[in-house]
Amino acid sequence: MALYSEKVMDHFTNPRNVGKIEDADGIGEVGNAKCGDIMKIYLKIENDVITDVKFNTFGCGSAIASSSMATEMIKGKPLSQALELTNKAVAEALDGLPAHKMHCSVLAEEAIRSAIKDYYDRRGIAYDKSQFPEPHGEEEHNFEED
Ligand code: FES
Hints:
The protein is α+β, with helices and mostly antiparallel strands.
């Protein structure tokens, strides 16, 4: 069986939403302590809805495919829904990632969360801090168990 699903290969070779939004309303940048890779997400937000999203990554193929899929999943969605997106849901939408590559999909989830937090901070919008755990907190420890 192939290591990567057709969907992973499709999003890796033809990633959606790559690039930068110059006048972004929120920008999130996170790094993966395990591999040193970096992910940056740009959001355009209107009335609490993500109207546009772009990403740049210095990451592996799985990170590219995960980000491509994750950006497709949050585009046009309210922030509340984007905040609920988990890396597991992204991996499922990609028809799975190899276990040792699951940590790559965490980059996309964390960068989206961080961009939304940046938006709230810029606008002075109050938010529930528990929704924004520090990146690489507990999840980082779980990587070894995946
Ligand atoms: Fe670093 Fe995949 S190995 S993001």
